[in-house]
């Protein structure tokens, strides 16, 4: 199983990174679209002036604003997640975070110069716990790419848990990658698979 396969699309992953910088907005105070627009430009500027800051940005800014529990539930699958002990779940999340940091760091250091245009929400936010923020990613000489960011509201804070590019979900891709190993060995087997990858990259 190639665990890094779903992380290699530069537009997808780099845009995913930008989408989760400071997405910690309270529902009543911040517009998620305006927040993403403002922070995205700030992040691009910082990375262009100092790309060595990538690892620090990941640890200090990205990780606190990604819902790794929600991501892990999707990737592992409902039944396997419920069957796993709490300690096993925590280990999976821990190794998955390390995996993402390694891949994100590599991608940030090669960050492509794309333009991102965020689109207005299709409907006003009222009582929704889940929302989708859509955007178009363009680069000179290429056709626009549709990116949809899925956010979940947790304790008054918006957190990213998935991104969909041209109809392809990041989470569904990882779920497919792990399906066979989890089917035969449960979450513990998936942990060992990620741990092996982390130790060799």
Task: From the structure above, extract its key features.
201 residues, alpha+beta, Nuclear Transport Factor 2, Chain: A, 5-stranded antiparallel β-sheet, 17% strand
Could you give the order of strands across the largest sheet? 1-2-3-4-5
How many helices does DSSP assign? 7
Mean pLDDT: 78
In N-to-C order, the SSE pattern is HHHHHHEEEEEH
Task: Choose one word for the global shape.
Answer: globular
**DSSP E strands, number:** 5
CATH architecture: Roll
As a whole number of angstroms, the C-alpha radius of gyration is: 17 Å
List unreliable stretches of 5+ residues: 22-29
**What is the name of the CATH topology?**
Nuclear Transport Factor 2, Chain: A
Walk me through this protein's architecture:
With 201 residues, the protein is of the alpha+beta class. It has a single domain, classed as Roll (Nuclear Transport Factor 2, Chain: A). It is built from 7 helices and 5 strands, in the order ααααααβββββα. The protein has helices spanning 10-20, 32-49, 54-62, 68-76, 78-83, 86-109, 170-199, and strands at 115-118, 130-138, 145-154, 157-165, 168-169. A 5-stranded antiparallel sheet has the order 1-2-3-4-5. Strand 2 (130-138) and strand 3 form a beta hairpin. The longest helix is centred in the C-terminal third of the chain and has 30 residues, at 170-199. It is globular. The protein starts with 9 loop residues before the first helix and ends with a helix.
């Amino acid at each position: 199983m190639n665990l890094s396969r779903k992380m290699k699309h530069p537009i997808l992953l780099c845009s995913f990174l930008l989408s989760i910088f400071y997405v910690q907005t309270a529902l009543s105070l911040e517009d998620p679209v305006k927040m993403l627009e403002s922070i995205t430009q700030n992040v691009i500027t910082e990375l262009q002036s100092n790309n060595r800051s990538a690892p620090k940005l990941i640890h200090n800014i990205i990780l606190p604003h990604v819902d790794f529990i929600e991501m892990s539930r999707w990737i592992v699958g409902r039944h396997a997640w419920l069957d796993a002990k709490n300690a096993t779940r925590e280990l999976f999340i821990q190794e998955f975070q390390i995996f993402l940091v390694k891949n994100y760091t590599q991608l940030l250091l090669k960050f492509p110069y794309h333009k991102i245009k965020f689109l207005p929400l299709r409907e006003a936010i009222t009582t929704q716990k889940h929302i989708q923020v859509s955007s178009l990613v363009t680069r000179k000489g290429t056709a626009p790419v549709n990116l949809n960011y899925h956010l979940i509201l947790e304790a008054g804070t918006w957190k990213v848990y998935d991104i969909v590019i041209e109809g392809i979900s990041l989470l569904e891709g990882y779920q497919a990658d792990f399906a066979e190993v989890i089917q035969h060995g449960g979450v513990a087997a998936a942990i060992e698979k990620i741990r092996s990858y982390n130790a060799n990259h």
